[in-house]
Amino acid sequence: MNRPRSRRALLASVVTTAAVATGGFEHVSNTANRPPLESGSVPADWYDCRSVTRPEPRLSTDDNALEFRTYPSLPSGSGSKEAGDSSDRSPPPSLVDSAAEYVTEFERAYRQNAFIVQFGNETRTFDLRRSDHRTAAIGSSTNADAVMVAIRYDLTLGTQQSAVDPRDEWDVRVTYYIDENFVLRARYDGVAEDLSLEPDPRRQGELVACLS
């Protein structure tokens, strides 16, 4: 006689089925019909920098509310080279080595600013705690063309009404793509044990920063 499935296992199965049916990801549909990525890196003409999409809240008028968080800059030395420089234009080792920290700070700014956009002067508590990350260079590890980073984190949010009992989000997963031109972001909304580089922001992500 088979042992009945637990409620948690059944719920995970239902959520997983729904995630598979819907793709399980937040994504931007205008990337679906683009040509294959032969080199793995995103061509410079794929995105218009006027199409950057990220939360940009107004300044708070309440001293007790959370403040807008500035989006981080790339590590020193990882920007575009000077005009006339004919050497390979690729992220230096400093970007590959510090990509997880950069992505964590970017995601922290993204989520806090989104929280402020939604709740404005009511915001009181924000705490993002990264629990895991995974980084992969695109191209060779010593001369990468770009970097993919996946992070997993827990998040605590509280408003003026919920400051005593803030709301928690567990095991949030996002994937970022970074090269000399763009930062792309995609969020995973399914159920999975292992942290993977899915969804692929190059196909199912949104443009959140232009670097060139």
From TrEMBL:
Query: Which parts of the sequence are annotated with region: Disordered?
Result: 53-96
Q: What is this protein called?
A: Tat pathway signal sequence domain protein
Name the source organism.
Natrinema soli
Q: What is the lineage of its organism?
A: Archaea, Methanobacteriati, Methanobacteriota, Stenosarchaea group, Halobacteria
